[in-house]
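ESCALATION

Customer reports they have been waiting on this structure for their group meeting. Please prioritize. Original submission:
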Amino acid sequence: MPKTALNPQNLESVATRFRILGVPLRLQILNELADGERTVGDLVDATGSTQPNVSKHLTTLLAHRLVRREKRGNSAYYSVADPAVFDLCEIVCGNIERALDEERRAFSG
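Update from on-call: job pushed to the front of the queue and completed.
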């Protein structure tokens, strides 16, 4: 895999992306959107959060181009704009699993 040069501007962009993804509710929203587009109401029901809180996080995800919004009648439908975010989550989850497996092996002898 080619390595992207991490000049100061790139470093700031990467750090911002990680900050955006560092909020559990945002990850939960993205996870719900992995199955297809949803309205704010759908996401409120799925996450158990409040409508203002879900809307606030969707606004952030939209501003950073991780989701897109499409108005249809009186409803807005949100979907994932950057599916690469799921690749990143898979990498992180895989690393966590490997670390936990190593820890289990260390304690079991």
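Sent to customer with the following note: The chain is about 65% helix and 15% strand.
Escalation resolved.
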